[in-house]
Structure formats: structure tokens, C-alpha cells
DNA sequence: TCAATAGTTCAACGATTCATGAGTAGTTGA
DNA sequence: TCAACTACTCATGAATCGTTGAACTATTGA
């Protein structure tokens, strides 16, 4: 993933409704959900929903396909994984503390030897 | 990490200059860099830099401490790791495809059996 | 062909964010 | 105390984003 792509993906996710849409779509996999179903669960107007869906689409985080009179949206899980990979490896250069906290957040503690004594770095 | 916190962290990262600052600070760990050093490497005006640094600070992604006449900024790596953990586990519910693509992006291929045949979901 | 259904697009408005430059505040050394 | 240095705050104008409602397009079935 390139920086431009990552930036637009981050901007797309930095919105409550859109994050909620992604949260809904990921477990549905390729089957996805229709715009109407998403709208019913997300509770926003049709035009607003359409706006957010196209923002996610343009950011490359979801795909759209028509099925009769419905439009089905599905999460592009590989792209989402790619974004997380980018944050972890490109932006944080595979930093051990970041990786450790990414893997394990139970209790908010980090478990790498070198960071056991750190306050909140 | 809570949703509100994650949203502000995502919004903070969704900007080229701020992402660049994080990229600079993570490898420096607790030592961090002074505002002046960051400004020299990031190439933006002092006031703009200050604005971006305070945005990152408010989002909980960096810390500031004074050292003489300098102000030293350091990445809060645990928070950054927490954000990535949130994306992976809360938003994507630990989805296997997302996790696999997050771990391995070589060639852009995913390696879970169930997703080998998927196009780009 | 026509009505109903499912979604999208558009213009308009308000709110927020961004970049700039001027001015201000804290720290140091003479 | 004062000048130099380092960094922040504030006011401004421009640009972007988010929301709304009305109008539009595409599809289906009678």
C-alpha cells in the first residue's frame, strides 16, 4: 500500500458512521450487505449513507455490485489488512513495542523485555 | 482503546505531515525529537508544525516534555499499537483474511485457505 | 407503459480543518 | 535585566467535509 492510499483509507475510517459500516461488513465477507440493510442498521438517511458508502468505496475499503434493484456492498478485507500492515511496518518500521501492544492489549500492558519499564512510550 | 479515542487517532494520522511526524518519532522511542528537529526534517512552518504536533498530542499519539528551551516530542508507541489492535480486533473482529493480509503483504497475496480463491474481499 | 422500490446525485448551507504570518511566552547566557 | 533562541497562540481567509432534502436513475412487476 502506498502513502496516498493509506491516507485516504485513514481519512475514510476516521468517521463514526463509516467505521460502523466497516464493522458491519467485515464479518459478512464477500456476501456483503445491501445499502438498505446497512442503512437500517446504521440509522442514517439514504443520501447520507450513499455519501459515506461512496467515500469508503473511493478509499478502496469496500466494493459495490448491483444485484437486481439492490446494490450490495462488501468489505475489501485485503485492503483493510493492507492498511494495518502499512501502519505497522511502514509507519512504525516494525517497532517491537507497537507490535507487542498490537498483539496483546489485555490490561494495557506491554510484554517486550525492553519496554517493561517504560511508562507510555 | 475506545471508539472515540480511535476515531481521533485515525483523524490525526490521516494527514501527510502528521503521519510523517509519527514515522520520524517511532524509531526514536522515548528519546524523541525536539520540535525544531522535527520541523527541519518535515519542512513545514513553525506554526503549522506546532498545530500538527498539538493535534497528535490531543489524539494521544505523542507526548511532549520540556528540556531546557526545547520541547521534546516522543511517540506513544503503546497507544499506536492499541489503535492497530482496535482496528484488527474490535473493528474487524479478528477476521482471518484481514489478519493474514496484515501479517504478510508480500506480493499482495493472502494465504489463508478459505481466501485463496477470493478476488479482493 | 406505469407505478413502486432501491439507491444515487446535486445544490446549498453550516461546521470544521488547514495554512499563513504576526505576535507572545518560556528559557538561557551575558 | 536584556537579547537571543525556541516554540506556541491567535486571527485570518481559503478549502474541505458533513448534512439535508429534492430531484434523478435503474430495476422490477403488473
UniProtKB/TrEMBL annotation, chains A, B:
Pfam family, one: HTH_20
GO molecular function (one): DNA binding
Source superkingdom: Bacteria
Residue ranges of domain HTH arsR-type in the record: 1-95
CDD domains membership: HTH_ARSR
Signal sequence, renumbered to the chain: none
Keywords from the named record: DNA-binding, Transcription, Transcription regulation
Protein name: Transcriptional regulator, ArsR family
Species assigned in the record: Pseudooceanicola nitratireducens
Amino acid at each position: 500500500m502506498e502513502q496516498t492510499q493509506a491516507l485516504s483509507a485513514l481519512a475514510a475510517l476516521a468517521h463514526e458512521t463509516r467505521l460502523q459500516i466497516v464493522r458491519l461488513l467485515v464479518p459478512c465477507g464477500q456476501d456483503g450487505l445491501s445499502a438498505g440493510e446497512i442503512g437500517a442498521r446504521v440509522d442514517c438517511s439514504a443520501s447520507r449513507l450513499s455519501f459515506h458508502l461512496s467515500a469508503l468505496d473511493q478509499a478502496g475499503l469496500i466494493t459495490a455490485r448491483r444485484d437486481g434493484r439492490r446494490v450490495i456492498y462488501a468489505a475489501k478485507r485485503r485492503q483493510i489488512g493492507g492498511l494495518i500492515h502499512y501502519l505497522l511496518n511502514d509507519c512504525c518500521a516494525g517497532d517491537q513495542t507497537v507490535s507487542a501492544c498490537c498483539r496483546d492489549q489485555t490490561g494495557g500492558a506491554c510484554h517486550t523485555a525492553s519496554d517493561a519499564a517504560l511508562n507510555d512510550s
